[in-house]
TrEMBL record:
It catalyses: homogentisate + O2 = 4-maleylacetoacetate + H(+). The gene is hgd. Keywords: Dioxygenase, Iron, Membrane, Metal-binding, Oxidoreductase, Phenylalanine catabolism, Transmembrane, Transmembrane helix, Tyrosine catabolism. Its EC number is 1.13.11.5. The chain crosses the membrane at residues 22-41. It comes from Sinocyclocheilus rhinocerous. This is Homogentisate 1,2-dioxygenase. Its cofactor is Fe cation.
Amino acid sequence: MTKHICCCSLVGRGRYSDGPTQLLLCFSILFYHILPLSLFLKNKINSYLINTFQITLFWLYRILPSVRHKPFTPMSCGDLTENWNEVEPDPNQLRWKPFIIPKSSEKKVDFISGLHTVCGAGDSKSRNGIAIHMYTCNTSMTDKCFQNADGDFLIVPQQGEILITTEFGKMMVEPNEICVIQQGMRFSVDVFGETRGYILEVFGAHFELPDLGPIGANGMANPRDFQTPVAWYEDRTVATGYTVVNKYQGKLFSCQQDFSPFNVVAWHGNYTPYKYNLENFMVINCVAFDHADPSIFTVLTAKSTRPGVAIADFVIFPPRWGVADHTFRPPYYHRNCMSEFMGLIKGHYEAKEGFQPGGASLHSIMTPHGPDVDCFEKNSTAVLKPERVAEGTMAFMFESSFSMAVTKWGLDTCHRLDKSYYKCWEALKNHFNPNWKPSSK
Ligand SMILES: O=C(O)Cc1cc(O)ccc1O
Ligand SMILES: [Fe+2]
């Protein structure tokens, strides 16, 4: 079998080299995977293997160490939570209308105050779990940064580009691109209007490319298409106080310091933030008959310790050709041993009307779901010629082996739950005909 060398595992937990710009600083090494590591580079051409050992290391050469700050004190968490027992469990199919973005003329909301937890499971303390958040904001973070001590954020902008200043440099991330800010990396978000997006947070694992198995050397998300920032720094004293917000054990804390944390003059290593344009996804799919599992659309996965079982997969439904013969081409009706949270960046999802950009759906473990009645009827009799599917659209799924609980905000106080969702299947008819014969194969 072809040996594929394109697995990039940004694994491990680094410690920041956090002192003055000398080489005598701490670095971390973690022996984790048996895969070669590749480094996401600032340009698309020069992707290369950093080495063939199983290590994650990084050095940050900075002007002042992060330790020079006043003590952290608790602050309001708003709608951000890791309490999965706020409301009773709900096994129903759930669908949300587009989440409301506050108007800046009414209320200034930045990326942090605009975080709302929709659902999740597990726990940041035992380093095993997942949380799904929406961010809806209208104002840039000024003299304020965020760090997540609990896990990694995979950010999916849906409306409005976000300019993320990180300790490693700056990244502009537009809708149809995604980025990952790994555990502990400090960042600040600038926005340019009403802004909305989705966040998949994983505790205790990092995102990596899925193993390609029989696909071989290339396909799906290729390592060369991941981009990482170049070092950017400011040597800025902030006499009025710079605020560092720390998400720690599911709660928010803040502290003050008198300098910008974006004071990293240079960095080196393979534990970095990175971004990826979903247009670069090389789609693999059925070219004969039947409907492949959407795992073939996995962009990134956060593996659990159980082989083959993900804490969470980030899966997309990109524009593609549908060519399958003798096949009902849209998704099948199913119950899943995984939880499926779906969002829509743009366009229209093939299987359902009423699922709108900026909205979401959750089909929990073993909750039945599938195409709505119109999609079923239309595609049951459609002539199976080659057809473009999902042109101009981008839906995605956060698929998790965890049985997720929905928060009080998600079920109630966001006021976006579409209570009529179940009706889209009510008119499904019985078409069973025991005498039916296939006309031709
Ligand atoms: O439920 C969904 O819409 C997502 C999905 C799509 C698909 O093509 C097959 C299975 C699946 O869960
Ligand atoms: Fe599904």
